Amino acid sequence: MGETISLEQRRQKSGQMNEKEQAIREDLAAVHRLAHRFGWDDNIYNHFSCALPGGEEFLVKAHGLLMSEVTASNLIVVDQQGRTVRGEGTVERSALHIHAAIHLGRPDAFCILHVHPPYSTWLSSMQDNRLKMTNQNTIRFFDRIVYDEAYEGLAVAREEGQRMCQALGEKRIMIHVNHGVTVAGPTVEEAFFDLYYLELVCKEYFLVISSGGKARVIPDEICLRTVSQMEEEYLEGAQLTLAAWKRVLDREEADFRN
Question: What's the pTM value of the predicted model, to 2 decimals?
Answer without folding.
Answer: 0.92
